[in-house]
Sequence to fold (419 residues):
Amino acid sequence: MTRLVLKFGGTSMGDLDRIRRAARIVAAEYHAGRRVAVVVSAMAGKTNELVAWTDGAGRPAQGIDPSDDEYDAVVASGEQVTAGLLALTLRNMGLRARSWMGWQIPILTDDQHGKARIVDIPGETLGAAVDSGEIAVVPGFQGMTRDGRITTLGRGGSDTSAVAVAAALDCPCDIYTDVDGVYTTDPRIESRARRIERISYEEMLEMASLGAKVLQTRSVELAMAKRVPVRVLSSFIEPDDHGVLPDKGGTLICDEEEIVEKRIVSGVTMSRDEARITLLGLGDRTDAPADVFTRLADAGVNVDMIVQSQSRTEGAVNLTFTTGRRDATRAAELMRAAQADIGFQEIRLDEDVAKVSVVGVGMRSHAGVAQTMFRALADKGIKFQAISTSEIKISVLIDAAYAELAVRALHAAYGLESV
Fold:
């Protein structure tokens, strides 16, 4: 018997009818001879509601140390509800199922409440239960510290939970969501986008970090580190009258070596969660950029693109960098507060920008990828404000008004409609 982890997201757990559909998929896999563990998200919208309740409860009184441990106790409950409901539904179908809370497995994490990272999942107890024919239903998004406190893994953490459970059980992971796979770009922007059958861990990691919303970045990192094969599938498929699933299709995320034909570019992504900060007239000291980015790092502000150019003022430069929109105001305030120490004349903040990227492992061995990108943008009259690259991606920062036009232009330029 082979093991398999299935994961169902919030839309797949949205109500009892959808939970029953998920149960039919689980049952089909079980009757096909697989030993199954299932990881579930909270019902769509439930986590937001729970977070609003914790916000409404207010902050600790003076003299009480602030902590997110009780926040975690509240928001982790959404997944516990769906885990129990799915287990009940499977039992009603005649299957042996039970829910396993994070502390029962256990899913051990560090103590960073609200954004904990998984440290270990001892797989022996859960593995023995699954191998005995029990369907284990695990609430995603939650774990526990070594001293027994509930933790949560941050938004999208159920994907990470599923991959971690699959790693502990040494088996593949099928992630069911409201899309039927990973596409060459967002089909809502480009109607000719195509589903990708196989994509490497590295490509998926870049696409997830650059704006693709299919999987959480940390889940892809973990899958790559543990070499867990992950398949993204639609939760809206149905077993036939004999309880057999149709050809599932979807997108397999795997080692690059398992992809026979490597595309030069696999996808185009877009992120509007960007802001550009420019320090004008920064003193042209060798340690000036280090001073700026050390202060930002100490404040927990992540910086992406960086461009330095000559200033109109002699002996000075202009330093531009991008960060997430959520951190932009804080980063700008931090710079203003240290203006005299850093030594710059003026700061500008622009949140009306977007980052558009092309990703593909074929870039390693093919010339002309950048030329194609910049020619396609130039033909549409789109100017770029900053560039960042890695071995398998090129990103440009542009005016947000041109973001969708840029995506469509690049999708066509690389012939992705014929993937």
Remarks:
- The chain has a mean pLDDT of 92.
- The first strand starts at residue 2 and ends at 8.
- Residues 16-31 form the longest helix (16 residues).
- The radius of gyration is 24 Å.
